[in-house]
Amino acid sequence: MINTNLCKVEDGKMETTLNNPIIIEAPVGTRYLNEFMGTLPTGILNKKETGCGATSVMLENKEHVIVCCPTIQLIKSKISQYPNERCPYELCGVMKGVTVQDIEAYIQWCMGKQQPAKIMTTYDSFPKVAATIGDHLRYCKIVVDEYQELLDAAVYRNKAIKSLLRELRGYENVTYLSATPIPYDYVPEELVGLSKYEIHWPEQSRIKPCRIQTDSPFSKVFDIICQHKAGNPLVIGGQQVQEYFFFVNSVKAIKRIIKAARLKPDEVKIVCAKDEKNKLKLGEEYKIQDIPDPNKTFTFCTKTVFYGADFYSDAGLIVVVSDGHVRSTLLDISSDILQIAGRIRSVNNPFKNLILHIHSPSSVLPSHEEFEAELTERVRKAEQDIHAFDELVPKGLESVIIEKQKVNEPEAVSFYDPDTHTVKIDSLKIAHMRHKFETIDSIYTDGISLRNAYEQDGYNMEEAETWIQNIKQKVSMSGSLEPFHENYLIYREERPKMPIGKTDLAKEIEQQFPLIPQAFYLLGNSMVEKLKFDEEKIRQWVHFKSPATQSALKVELRNNFSFGESYTNKKAKRMLGEIFSKLQIELTPTAAFLRHLLKAEKVKLRNPERPKRDDGIRITKEVGICMMQIAIHEKKVA
Questions:
Q1: Which percentage of the chain shows pLDDT scores above 90?
Q2: Residue 186's pLDDT is what?
Q3: Is residue 80 part of a domain?
Q4: Whole-angstrom Cα distance, residue 609 to residue 110?
Q5: Would you say the C-alpha torsion 391, 394, 397, 403 has a positive or negative sign?
């Protein structure tokens, strides 16, 4: 356990509070945790520095250990490092394709070799590992590595991550590990109350960011590549840069850069998630590689390798690229960039604690007032959903709102809680939005605020310098899901000709973008095409066409419109609008809806206030739902 002689406890108390974690003092001259710790404490551990060997402590000690990781690349990186001269143990990586039988065989092998089990698994695969080990899991140490990633995951994969956290809460020997822990205000409720520890490094290294502000960060990267290929590499402190590690959180942007610079496959290494959607973006020519693969002059990495992955280079420079026009490339100064800066492990690398941060001022990010207005509107819509749900429960029609929550995820700031059978405001998501806005978006509005963000987080600004003339050409990228809609459409059209099941790309689209298969199933190919792959319109129509909504709508129509009765078009539209509002259907109740939803005939109705008769309808059959496709080509409907 922890050498308590090396633990300094504030105020002399062995307890933790919000502002008073247990401090573990690192002895002067130490660089790695295994020099003074044999295991990790149970609770939340802020190791304060990347590359200090916290994971290695657990992989190399004599405990049975399960390390839960946010990315496959992190697992592959660690597995490639073992066995080594320090540790003879072999690791087991559990990810997609690894079966229960594989895990059981590894455990049996460990027993035969008298080696402790050392299992690394993704967050998603942990339930499979836990089910395989069963009751023996209580003898294992569980480490949730880079646990700050749970915040993003809990927001956009709420159910899966909350289920994981609840399951982990049932085990006593769990450590949540990070160099950049989640701010207390945003910690998932399952982690509230856990003991908190913090490593104090007397000789903590400081990262040196050199900032370049430009209207076109991607063009700046292009310029660096071209200059290097022309024999003019960057020179810093008299040392030439030989390799570049570009961290760009957009595969589409990476493809544009390497194509513009005419980089050949043997000149570039691309490390990102090995899924079909990324393969589609890169095309056949450029292959996705793993971190342990041999270095090339130019390496491009997405966020899949920001955490815990190790690079080795004697003269490699880290270049972070953030474009204010491409929201996915914006990086949190206090966490993401700190994580990135520690990725080069080579001790003799003169640039190992240096970051070149190429960024742009944002022209598209909202102001504080705009952000608050947008959030207020989303909360208003969420409260409408909650009110509608409560009103529909007595009628047994609440499933229409439950379906809407599923369709609108991750945009909605409300969620359905099956345990209490209620719709609630998602306070975690709202807190996450505020946190991200304050720590990411707002610091990119201009160079001064970016510098201030660096200074507030303890970075060394003394050696910051500006290189190269700014390139004024602007670059913009689209974050549309249209390519995935189009490729799913191709899969559906070719499906009758296919001798086997779904393509890998189709499976990944269904898993990552559940709206897309819902759209094609409920609306059909032609309707999705006619909607021009517009995400907002597709969400509205999927909710409208869902069985739960159709069933509830049928009940409401029967309760409000009577067989044999006549209604003016104006009154019928108003009545239909009230029904749509009650069921949270976000479509306009037009004449087209009246014709298709109500079995009615056109009539002229006498108006006592004027000689001209009003257009209207007479219900000629029992009110029901016409399941035929609605004429979406009519502009008023679409």
A1: 24
A2: 75
A3: yes
A4: 91
A5: positive
Q: What is the pLDDT of residues 172-219, one digit of tens each?
A: 899 999 887 777 777 777 888 899 999 998 866 667 777 788 777 887
- The listed range with the strongest mean pLDDT (108-117, 535-544, 556-565) is 108-117
Question: Cα–chain-centroid distance for residue 461?
Answer: 30
Which residue range is the domain that position 613 belongs to?
Answer: 546-619
Of the candidates 219, 134, 247, 268, which has an alpha carbon nearest to the alpha carbon of residue 472?
219
Q: Residue 504 corresponds to which tokens in the numbers above?
A: 């890998």
Residues 262 and 335 in one domain: yes
Number of domains within the chain: 5
What tokens appear for 440 in the block? Answer: 């990411």
Residues 298, 156 within the same domain: no
Residue 268 and residue 225 share a domain: yes
149 part of a folded domain: yes
Q: Hey, is 262 helix, strand or coil?
A: coil
Is 629 domain-assigned? no
Alpha carbon separation from 414 to 187, 188, 381, 410, 466 (Å, rounded): 18, 16, 9, 10, 45
Q: Which of 169, 200, 231 is the last residue of a domain?
A: 200
* CB 579 within 8 Å of CB 553: yes
Q: Kindly give the interhelix angle for 158-169 and 126-133, rounded to the nearest 10 degrees.
A: 30
What mean pLDDT is reported for the chain? 79
Q: Residue 488: is its pLDDT beyond 90?
A: no
For residue 246, give both structure tokens.
């570009």
Please indicate, yes or no, if residue 305 is contained in any of the structural domains. Answer: yes
Question: How far is residue 598's CA from residue 566's CA, in Å, rounded to a whole number?
Answer: 12
For residue 623, the model assigns a pLDDT of 57
Q: Any alpha helices (H) in 409-524, and if so which ranges?
A: 427-436, 447-456, 482-494, 504-512, 515-523
Using the predicted structure, report yes or no on whether residue 235 has a pLDDT greater than 60: yes
Residue among 427, 437, 317 at smallest CA distance from 373: 437
Tell me, what amino acid is at 123?
Y
Is the pLDDT reported for residue 528 higher than 50?
yes
| C-alpha count within 13 angstroms, C-beta hemisphere, residue 522 | 21
| Local structure of 597: helix, strand or coil | helix
Q: What pLDDT band is residue 17 in, cutting at 50, 70 and 90?
A: very low
**Which residues share a beta bridge with 615?**
604
pTM: 0.62
Q: What are the C-alpha distances in Å from 316 to residues 251, 341, 346, 357, 465? A: 21, 12, 9, 15, 18
Return the C-alpha torsion angle 457, 459, 464, 467, nearest 10.
Answer: -70
- Six token digits for residue 357: 């941060």
DSSP string, 60-109: HSSS-EEEEES-HHHHHHHHTT-S-SS--PPPEEE-TT--HHHHHHHHHH
Indicate if the pLDDT at residue 66 is higher than 90.
yes
With cut-offs at 50, 70 and 90, classify the pLDDT of residue 369: confident
